[in-house]
Each structure stands twice: as C-alpha cells, then as structure tokens.
Amino acid sequence: MVSKKKFIPGTKNISHEPLVNTQCVFLPPLHVKLGLRKIFVKALGREGVTFLHLRNKFKHLSEAKVKEGVFIGPQIKAVFRGEEFEKNCQKQKKQSG
C-alpha cells in the first residue's frame, strides 16, 4: 500500500529531486521567441489588416485557434518571414503614429 505524502503549504513540496541543477538551465531562445510571437498575435486587432492576413494564410485553422494565437513554430516562422506581413505591419505603424 502506497502512503500519500502530505504537502505543507508555504514550503517547497518536491516529490522527486531534480536531475540537474535548476540554476544551470537556461530557456532556449526559440521558446522565448515563440512565446512573444503568441502574445503579439493575441494583441492584434481582430478586424485589422495583419490579423486578416493571418486568417487568410491559415485557412485550415479554426477561427478560435487563430484568435488565441495557437500556432506551431514553423507556422509562426513562415508568417514572420513573409514580405506581405512586414508591409502590413509597417502600414499600421505609420497609421498609428
């Protein structure tokens, strides 16, 4: 019979010790970039030119996934490499200020 561990609030409740020193682990830059791009997509206006470009580029994705910024890495990279996307972003920058 396995007994349950009792966890104490306010302390570090660890069931297994980490295999590596956590202070020696760095986040891979790709994951950081993907996270920032996801935030960028979520911040876009839903009727804006840039968001509509995303919607047209990924017709196979549901509207809910596009609204929430649910993309995989290669899809995000493809969008940011596209010239049309850059042009749309530059137009919006000029219009906003």
Structure description:
- With 97 residues, the chain is mainly alpha-helical.
- It has a domain at 47-96.
- 55% of the residues lie in helices and 0% in strands.
- It is built from five helices and no strands.
- The chain has helices spanning 29-43, 49-57, 63-68, 73-81, 83-96.
- Helix 2 packs antiparallel against helix 5.
- The longest helix is centred in the middle third of the chain and has 15 residues, at 29-43.
- It is elongated and about 55 Å long.
- The N and C termini lie far apart (67 Å).
Secondary structure topology:
Layout: H1 29-43, H2 49-57, H3 63-68, H4 73-81, H5 83-96
Helix pairs in contact: 2-5
Properties at a glance:
mainly alpha
Radius of gyration: 21 Å
Element pattern in H and E: HHHHH
The major sheet is characterized as: none
Round the mean pLDDT to the nearest integer and report it: 71
Low-confidence stretches: none
Shape: elongated
Q: Tally the helices: what do you get?
A: 5
Whole-Å distance between the termini?
A: 67 Å
Structural class of the helices, strands and pairings? Answer: mainly alpha
- The counted number of beta strands is 0
Strand content: under 5%
- Helicity range: 40-55%
